[in-house]
Amino acid sequence: MGLSLSGLPRFALIAVMVGAAALSACSQPAEPVADGLVLADPYEDESLNPLMGFAEDGMSKIFDGLVTHDADRRLQPALATAVPEPSADGLTWTARLRPGVVFHDGSALGPEDVVATYRTLLDPAAASPISSSFKMLSGVRQTGPDTVEFRLRHPYAPFAHRLVLGVLPSEKLTGGPLESSPLNTRPIGTGPYRLAEWRRGERLVLAAHDRYWGTKPKLRRVTVAFVPDDNTRAQRMRRGDFDGTVLPPALAGTFSRQNGMTVYGHDSADYRGVMLPQKNPVTSDLAIRRALNLAVDRQGMIRALLAGRGQSAFTPVPPALAEFADPAATFKHDPEQARKILEDAGWRAGPGGTRSKDGRQARFTLMYPAEDSVRKALAGGFASDAGKVGVRVDLLGLGWDAIEPRMKKDALLMGGGTSLDPDLVAYGLLHSSQAEDGFNNPGSYRDATVDAALDRGRNSPDRAVRTEAYRTVQRRLIENPPWVFLVFLEHTYVMRGQWSGYRPVVDPHVHGTLTWGPWWNLPEWSRRG
């Protein structure tokens, strides 16, 4: 998984199409619909409003941003006629709008819609959960019949990546809290598909937008069934209920010899790791954090728990960001050195094997979301390796509502990541200014060297300066680790039948059916044969 240092993807396309043995009657697929597609997803969005966080990394099927990304994650114009560039001082970005674009309700796109979208985002009364990602934006205004100007508080090099935000019609943005906006469940965008039906907890149906400005969708109707349980999804996939779904690697692998099925593996920037809170008396000890990073057998986890699909993670900067990733910023698997670090720091082994220091055991709780089978497995693997060097980890599966209040003092098996720009993944996770801001830096990590490098990386337009800044961050994370980063996952998908249009991409954390994943370019898909 991941990218080679040259930046070329090593996509693991495991296209195992097995010969003509007939399926049993109970697993025969439904008769295919030439211009339709049925997918299954484990997750159902609470809102389809981009200002509430839907498709924050782009690739929405319902909305367009001013820009989008291509298969190589390069920025391309969408609602803008060109990718916006900064002024000489880095504080002003201007976008010219594409003519002839209409929303799903038939109204024409204009600068007022872009202005209203971003002003609502910045409005404290709207309480957008993604507003913290736009703190650099001081204002937006219309400067001509087809132009919009963004003004920043300070230079911010990756600002164009933020412009994937879906644009909404201004007349539907009427003020007040976004939490109660009708757009959450009845979205109106300019994207290639419009929402035709949404039955909560059951399914969502998209229909082609006939007046779409870009590539007209070949698949006229897309149904997404919401099936949280992995085994149920796999069972129904075998039965023929779906054309495609996402599954954990080991479960996806069971389809590799099934007639008419194709298993795809996508490299991803989607990390999993153990967040170690600084306010916990055990995990606040640098010796504990360093020792745990050496104790963990990352490759062993990948082999045993992820069917060999994944890549070791040591920092949140993925191999996909090859220019910025520092290949030397790693930990070797060295349990003996881990034990020595603990001994030297005064953590002595007790009769049961668990170490203690000054009357306190080397013991802490590790939370994980109970419904996530992959995180549960990784948490178990981490606890096992920690125990081998004398650190006891108590596992606790909880719902997210129960997890969030405990993050200041209990460790958490977390996930996240993006393959678009290092600032988008590292700043919120590591900068001290973001400490305890929801899931931003929940462990209150503070390191002056990291802060200074993160600031340089986001403020400088110079690629060389940015590269060195993010490599400085990664090197410092090895010296003063806030987490035990474990793996970058390989996302695995199963498809039935033969399709045109598939192009692999490096997935971010958010993936599936409505954003990234194999269906990121859904308008280009069609059924073969």
From TrEMBL:
Domain of life: Bacteria
GO MF, one annotated term: peptide transmembrane transporter activity
One Gene Ontology cellular component annotation held by this UniProt entry: periplasmic space
Stored Pfam families: SBP_bac_5 (PF00496)
Alphabetically ordered keywords of this record: Signal, Transport
Any one of the GO BP annotations: peptide transport
Keyword Transport: yes
Occurrences of domain Solute-binding protein family (ranges): 75-435
Keyword Transport applies: yes
Signal peptide boundaries: 1-20
Family listed: Belongs to the bacterial solute-binding protein 5 family.
Name under which the protein is recorded: ABC transporter substrate-binding protein
